[in-house]
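re: that chain from earlier
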Amino acid sequence: MRIIIAYASAGAGHFKAAEAIYDYFRRQHKDIDVKIVDALEKAGVLFRSSYTFGYSFLINHAVFLWRWAFLATHLRFLRRFTKPVASLVERLNTKAFGIFLEKENPDFIIATHFLPPAIAAYLKKKGKIKSRLITVITDFGIHAFWISAGTDTYVVASDYTKELLMSEGIGERNIKVLGIPVHSKFLRRYEREALCRELAIEKNKFTILILTGSFGIGPVEETVDLLYREVQILVVCAKNKGLFKRLRDKNYPNVAVFGFVENIQELMAVSDLIITKPGGLSISELLAMELVPVFISAIPGQETENIEAMKRYGIGISAGNAAEIREIVLDYFLHPDKLSLAKEKVRAIKKPFATSELYDVICQSSAGAGS
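^ sequence. v structure.
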């Protein structure tokens, strides 16, 4: 059985989901030939740059344009114009990726970004490949670009996501509510006391983890200024070197500052509360770790939709500034019963075994095709 796992390197979440699937599948069976590919690596330079640097620029410096673009390509009365144009542009600029898929013609294509299934679905329509196409939607909301005629199965994060897809005309039998794939390191159980010793932090203090996203944005410094006297704070600055230096220079007690980390699961394991941007993968990881979230700095469109999905399940509180964050954090700190109730809601919705259940779907589909 030959499988291609395809993503697009526009935001870290799509790659992380693809990597989680790839790592799991590769360990399962020696007869599976599985490859992972970034569709943008096989695209023109200008197109690739517009996806990567363009996305980063808009959400950091021109978020109103991102909001407009998201709506213009999603609203029903506009998508009849915007989607065909986008599809044509994508096909013209990803010819090498299309040729790669034709040459490989795998049994399954699993996509964690909407660009690869759009190309694969077009090739299926033209009879150039016969692959079964599985689209793993890496947000809890739905944008029109995720929907491609020719997709055999949509893997979604929640029943809420399923309802949105069905409202777009996708049949229930084509939707699997498995969750968003996360790496196996988020499924392990960690011993908090030992980790606290390794991280050189207090084991008995109420601890909050602040994640700034890959771009290091949000009212992080102000939040630390307001809270460091009352709770223990772990801050992951990611690529924001300026924020990292400023917080390090302040040398606050009860504050541990990190740059880009590989052990985020360990920081989650020693935390009582997480303050984070509401990306689809970030939410799935914190749910797997049974952390209660406070959401900040949501990107209009996909991340605000993620917040709406979480509201459906009574999970997460949004904060617009550092003062609001402080109020929410101290409310949980001073009322442990509220934190316990919030954790129960997290446990009720979490779906940590998406990768293994997706593997089962693949095996069942393969067996069905061979019978």
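The chain has a mean pLDDT of 92.
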